[in-house]
Structures are given as C-alpha cells and as structure tokens.
Amino acid sequence: MNPMKTEPFQTPVDGRPVEYNAERLIDIIIDNQPVSVPEGITIHEAAARMGIFIPTLCSHPDLHPDGDCRVCVVEVEGLQTLQTSCNYRITQPIRIRTNSLKVIRARENILDLLFTKHCGYWDFNNCSRNGNCELQALARFSNSPLHLPKKEPEIAIDHSSYSIIREMDKCILCRRCVQVCQEMQGIGCLEVSGHGESTYISTFMDKPLGDSVCINCGQCVDRCPTAALHTNDSSEDVLAAIADPRKHVVIQTAPAPRAAIAECFGIEPGRALTFELNTALRQIGFDKVFDTNFSADLTILEEGAELLERLYHGLVLKDDQAVFPQFTSCSPGWVKYLEHFYPEMIPNLSSAKSPQQMFGALIKTHYAKLANLDPGDIVTVALMPCTAKKFECERPEMASSGFQDVDYALTTVEMANLFKRRGIDLPNLEKSDFDDPFGSATGSGVIFGATGGVMEAALRTVIELVTGDPVEKYFSNADIQPVRGMEGVKKASVTLPKTGPVPTLLQNILPSFDWLQGATLKVAIAHGIANAKKVLDDIKAGGEFASYHFIEFMACPGGCLGGGGQPIPTSPAIRAARAKAIYAEDQAYPVRKSHENPAIMKIYHDFLTEGPCSHLSHQLLHTSYTPRSKYSN
Amino acid sequence: MPTKQNDSPIEAINIQLETHCSQRSSLPFILPILQNLSLSDAESSMIYLSKKLDIPPVEISSLISFFNRSNSPSGRQTDVRLCKSMGFHKNQIKDIAQALQTKLNLGFGETSADGNCSLRWAACADDPQLSPMLWVNDQVYTQVKVEELDEILSNNSNQDSQSKIMHSSTFTDGLFFSELKPELAIKSILKKVVLNPNRAKSDVLVCNVDEGEPLAQKSRFLLTKYFPLVMEGMLINAFVAGIERGLIYLPNRYGYLKANLEHELSELRKRNLLGVDILGWKGFNFDVEVLVGLGDYVGREESALAAFLKGYRPEFDARGISTLPYRILAVDQFLKIAYLAANSPYNIKNVELESCQLPAIVSISGDCGQPGIYQVQNGMRIRELLQRVGADDACVLQIGGISAPLKTAEDFDQIINPFDLQQAASIIVYGPQTDLLEAVKDILSFFHETSCGQCVPCRNGIPVLMKSLQAYAGGKKMRPALPEIRSLAETIQLASKCRLGQCAPNAFLSVLEIAEQDLRGGMLA
Model-level pTM greater than 0.90? Predict the structure, then answer.
C-alpha cells in the first residue's frame, strides 16, 4: 500500500492563507537535531521537513487541525503535558522529543483505546478500506498493551442512502466528516451528538441519511479515515448482470476516474490510465466500453444551445421566464443542494441532463436500435468519480428511454477494488480504444473532470458558433486560462466582437446572432458547496453575480476530480496533480471542441435530426427538478 | 403531583430571540424551553429556530443532546431528580433512591410508558446541610427523608426549602472582605479612576457561579451571602474595562437561586447601582442578566463556558472558538476586586497581580468537625489547617478538589501550595472510616460523566480505569494488569486535551500508590 506521506499544510480549500511567517526564523531542536524554522509553523510540519515522521490521525490537509485524537503528541521541554504536533505552532525556541518513552507509551495506549472502539478490525478482509485504512496503517505503532476486549457490533448499519453507507460501529470520532460537512461544504448535515463516552456522530433528529438533507457529495467519505463512511457499492450487482448471458452490459467511463484510478495501485497522482482501463473493463466482461466524453460534448451542445436560446428569449423577446444566470446541472450533488436550500432558483438550472444520464437515455434508444437489441436487455453502468451519481441514476424522472436510463454508477475506488479482487494489474495492461458508435476521447469532454472544465468547453463552442471564428483567435491554443485553477470562485468575461451566420444545427431555435454583436458574456465558476452558497447568496441579494449569464457549479472542491468516489487520500496537492493530468490529456487529443466531435455530428445527423433543444432532445436529454425541504429529504 | 406549564414554545422562543438580537448566543436562553417538549414539538421548534438563526438544525439538536443525561425524555407532568451523593449521606440517598424506584415503578434514567413521569439522577448537592436533595419539576426539597416522599410526590409537602437554602448556615470564619462597607469600593473608584471612554458595547462580563466539581460550594455560598459586594466587584470591573453588559451564569443545579437573584438585581436598579448613568455618572452604563445553564460543571473551564454562551457545544477549545467577547471570572474574584478597590484603588488595573497576594478562599468538606468556607493564608501548613477544621484524625486529603492527588499523613507537614488550589478551590478531608475505593469510584464516575468526549485518552481511557477498579474491588485480578493500568493513567494525565482529563486519574493513581504501600485503616477491603 501507499507509504504514508507527510505533506506540508498547503492552502486549504477555503482559501485560508498558510499561517506562518517565512521572514522570521526560530531556532529549535527536534530529537537533538537543531534547525531553523519559520515562525508559526506547526511542529508536525517542521518535523516532516526534516524527514522525521510523526503519526497523525484526525488531522487532514484540507481541514483545520483540532487535535482531538492525540495520536500525534510529542514532548516539548518545559511543558508538563504532551502537545499535539498537528496544531502546536512554534513561536519560540523550544526543544522537542518526538520519540521519548513518554511519547511512545502515550501513543501505544491511545492507539490501543482507538482499536478497541473500532468494531471489526479483526474482520478486515470484509472491509472496503482494507489496505487503505488510516487506522490500520497506525497498527505498526501499537502493541496492544491493555488487552482490552474487542467491541461487538451494536449499531445498525444505515443503508438508507443510495450513495453513502454509515457503519457507525467503525467510527473513531475523528470528527472530520463534521468539519467537512459543516465548514468545508457548508451544508451542516452531520454533527457531534451526546457527550463523553456516549458521543456519536448524527444527523438532525438521528434521521437515516437517506431522509436527511445530505446531498450525496461524498466529501465525508473521501476524508473518513476508516470505513465508517463508505460508498454504496453495487459492483456485485454489476458482476451478476455480466454473468447473465441474456444481458448486454455496457459501461461509460468519465475523465476524472481515468485520471485518478492509478493512485489506487500505488502510482503517484497525475497519470491517466484511460486506455488501459478499456482493456481491464473488457477483461471483467463488459460488452462495450464507451467514453463519457461523447455525452459530455453532447451536453455542451444541448446546454450551449439552451444558453443561447435563453439569452435570445431574455434579451430580445423580453421574456421574463428566461432567468439569469443559467446554472450548469451536471453535478447531481449540486443539483440536490439547490433543490433543498434554494428551490426558488430551480428555474436558473439548465434543463440539460448530466453526461451520464444523457448517455443512458441514448444507449437504451438509439444504440439499442443500432445494435438491434431489446433495451430491456441492456444494462448501463457508469464509472464515475461521484457518489451522488448513484442517487442521480435512481431519480424517478431519469427513465426517458422507457427503462431506467443508467442502471448502476460505480466509483473509481469501487472499480479499483473490483480489479484487485480479479487480479487485474491495471497500470500494466495494453491500451485499447473505446467502442463505436460513440467515438473516442476529446479534449473538450475530458476537461469536464476539472473545475472550470464545463465552462471552458462551453465557451470554446459558443464563441466559435457565434462568431464564426476559431476560438484560438481569442484564446491562445484554445486554452481559456481565466476559468482554470483551484480558486473557490472564478470569473471571466468574453466580448463577442462579431457574429456570424447561425449554423444549420441551431437554425431551428435561433433566427440570427446579430443581437449578440458586441455583447459581453459574463461567466463564473464555483466549486465546493461553500463557494456555491456565496455566489447564490450574492445573486439573491442582487449583487455582482446577478448580472452574470452563465455559472458553472460543482459540488466537490476541485470539480469532479475531487469527487466522493475518488481515491483516498485527497489533498490540495493531489487534486492539483489530477487537474494537471486532465489538462495534459486535453492537449494531446486531436479534437478539442465539442461541436467538432465526429460522433456528435453523426448523432445530430442520424438521430436527433431536429437539433439541440428540439422536441426529441428535450424528451431524452433534458430533465426537470424537485423542490425539497431544507430540513429533510 | 406538581405539573409543568405547557405554553406555546414559539412565543417563549420569540421573546428570548428578541432580547438577544436573534444571535446564536440566544440559544443558551432558549434551550431550556426545548428540553421539556415532546420529540415532535421539539423538532418543529428546532426547525423554527434554525430558520431564525440561519444555522443548520442539527447544530441545535447537537447542543441539546450534549446535556441529555439519558436517552429518554423528561416526564411531561412529573420530572423527579435525586441529587447524587458524593461522600456524604450515601446510605440515606441509597434508601431514598430505592424508595423512589418502588413508588414510581421506574428505574433511574427511565420514563413511564405514557411519558408523564421520569426519574433521573441530578448533580450532587454540594452543601451537606441541604442533602439529601430532591427535585420535582422546578421545586426543590432539602434534607429529604424516606418518610416524606409520599407527601412530596403528591405535592402536599409544606417544606419551605427555598428559605432553608437561602439561609443555609454554612460555617465560615472571618473572610478578609467581610467587613467591607457597601458602596465604599465603587465610590472610591469613581472618585479616583477615570471612566474608560471606550465603552466596549460587545463585551460581556460573566460571573461564573459554576464551581467545576462537586463538593466545592464556595461560589454559591459567596454569591448568596455577599451578593451586593459581588455586584460591586462586577461594577468596578465594568467601569475600569469599559464593559456595559454582565451575566451571572448559574449551573443547572443552582437554578433555584435565579428568582432571588433577579429580585435583588431589580433592587439594585432602583438604587441606581445598575442600569444607565450609574450613581449619577454620565456614560457609566451596566446591567446584568441571569442565565441558568442546561447542565452542571460546564463552567469548570473558561473556553467551554464561552463556547456554550455563544451557542456551541461546551467543549474545551473546540473548533478554535475563542473566549472573546466573554470575560469570565469566578465569584470570589469580584470580591477581591471590590476589596482591592476599597484599599488601593490606583492599583486596580493590576488586579490579577494584586489579588495573588490575598489569601485564598477555599471550600473545605468531608470528614471534619467544621466544614465550610475558609480563607487560607499563604504559608499555612496542612496540619494547621486540619486542626482548624477539626480533622485531627484525618488520614488523607485532597488539596484542589477531587481533581487533586491524595496527600497522606507523611505530607501533613508541607505548606499548602496555592498553585494546587487553582484547579478547584476545594479541600476534601477523608477520615479513618472512609472507604477510599468507593471515593475513587465516585470521583472517576464524575469525570466520566463530565467529560466532553472530544479527545481519546479522556473519553475512552477513563472507562478502562473505572472497569479495572470494579474488578479490583470485586476481589478479582485487575485487568489490564497493574503496570499497564498505571501507564494508561499516566497517558491520560499527559495526553488529554484539557485539565479535566489531565486531572481525572490523579486520585486513582494516588490510591494505587497507597495500596502498594499497604497503609492500614480500613481503606481497602
């Protein structure tokens, strides 16, 4: 398994600056080694820089270190009690011992206490985190001095959510999930309840997760050190379908899992295994392997057309039903968040489905016909970075084909575990291409995996279709830099100096583009729900963003590459590496604009003949939303 | 049986929201309303509050759940709470407990099937003169005997406990401020010190009446006996620091003091010693309100109390919540301020430095002839103190409350270290008849219940110590073995996040040492 990495605290996701002063150095001694460190640095980070490893448990690179687990305690000369190195900030010259007898004994005792409160450490081969569990990784520091009886399972497993399962017998009360949900995401579904020995993590009124306001983003799953929170893994159902000779099982793979799945095999973040994955999936037994990039490009056409149509209705026809800004709708966690907390803004949401769902609808209609199959025999599976996709595919309205459009959504981690169970050595497989008729990877589809990617793909298409110019004329190499990067809220504006004729594809919905002559399109990108909330509150208060036209929202920090189903661990550095891989893939592909994808041109030629946002498109590729209560599901 | 009032909770909630500007800090005032509601009423009230305060509803249910002593709700009509024993009246309280269980047909921590009646334990009554103490709804009964229970439960008792409590005759010898004339201190300050022009509109001066552990009844006593002087101390502090708002924080077990205190406060307002332009000084505004907390011993630790006053879970230093803008001082600190103001007003700004020179005020309890509130001069030896309180045959004592280690006879020639009294200004004496093992069990049990649950050593370690003690007391072999248990106890002392966890094993470790040295005297079976 991955060797434990100690990463220096980087800028946390909420943009708080790193809290130390590089100007002022302080001389300290750690384990008899003298060193000068910047004022304000934590003991843990100072030690890490010197190659001294101090085990931690509850601290996390994305979160504020609370120092609750006490695993990282060290001795500071002059202080009677041990100090937590994760949040002890050095402001004076001190002498630190990280491995004195006191510290070692304390660590052993604390770990012993933790293990005996964690139900199932002896049952590890049934645990989804076996081999990648932070508590298991600490076992080498403990030697069970206390010989305490092991904990028997007491608490019923919460299976109520399609996406996330709560196995609270395994919870060690690190409180990361609470911090993630309350502060990092700003939703507030989980909180600590009770006190003392009977402390536990709960939802409001102890409701099952499926009945709460949980949006299924899975950020808590990504940061849980054990399997107390894990995904609802349906891979056994998928394997059963594959084993069934009557079933034709197809899978679509999304860019974010492809960029990250290598991490599950011990490889440094940043290496995409897109084409090796195709080989592996065929070995598992999938009949066809499709590229979600296709439907990502389709989403751009549909949503881009919708935007132009909305602008036309709003600016020219003065229709007050056309509300702005238009919000993207491909992040199901984000969509559920809006439904719960800002249902009055549902009209702002694009009616376009997510790429996953568009694909499902097309597979069970157009593809079924092409392949001469009964759609009832087709099982669609999606490989996604996302836990909310499991909820999305079960939404009642996601059955435009007459069947459940997408049957199963599997996450990156679930798929990696499946490969490992089958002995498939993913990183070392031969590469192979995707199946037709849905074509191969495109740059515009691949960047969906990063925050700002949907917006960039949309802008590449909209600018070209409206101006008639290649987008390289306005943005070098078609790289729209202002929408890229990990800042919580990004803004960009594009002025359209000229307009060209309306392409055939859009002639059914727009008579001309002249009304856009000289217009400035204002767009924004928000990732992470806390940032989404800032933008929404600003719009409601009539602030700056109220005058924007199009905003991309992603529930997960970093965009889909930081999704709840992505490999664990996650951190700002890991997400940055995944983003780099995704943009590098974009550079490598010959087709980098959605409207130039040959498979897209074919689908509108052969099947969706009336073009985007036509009647047939609306039937299959667009959806509606459900206002929900702010307090329960 | 005395019944509860069932007014519309929303109206009551709205009143509190208005008084406290619909801030999260209004929660401590609102939660008592929610605690007595049925589950479904509580849910809708919490949702209402969540809307008004713009916080997720789970934050509110989480805060209430911190204080729930049992999983069952309190009885709608009758909520019976018996104060625990801690070293005194153990047998009487046990008898009353058994009688209550029989009469109500309920175990402790249970509610009747129809939801009307509940039976629970309450925090230890600190004053042995009031114990055994029993609550039925908001009515408190003192010196309860088993024979009186029928009368009490049917609301026919003519006990006038309120006045018994207010006039409880706790022994005290001459305290250094007790001769201070009222209003002398404040007037001398007003003449000699300049009013701080920067009136801090947002700061709140808090008088913390919560001792932090059982048997330490100093704050309650001083507050009731010297209330006007305490208020003078608050006034002076407010004047010098420029604060306009004050709060008297009563832990739940002192809730019966609230009515009296509010009456006295209104008297002070009439004499222009509270309110606007106090004593005629323009711009000198200060007023005080009383808050009864949802639980007990929260005030043990400043950051926990500040978190609670802000509407968060009362946990030590949690989530980096700072103590601002609350300035929290104990009752006797205000008395010291008043004393210093009267005697050396120009030094009033260095009040912390100066008050270290004053004698410590300590609550002394346990096996002694004259338990009460004493002042302990710097340099006094333990033996001297024991003589003063009538405990010549003392075997063991704790200086610094139940948080402290045990001192045995060989330590009695030592000078009392004022630093030891900082954790709790309480000294507990154990005589030759004390069952030390029982005492340590009670002590660990207290820490176990009061632990906030944030950190692993305290939350998960203390129960292991308790279980090992049970095994030992039951004549079984200690499990884990003694050296491992000792190591665990030391880890809890060294690695816990706050002083509660760090002090919890002290008495336990002392008893282990004593057992090892095999002292005689009926301590260990």
Answer: yes
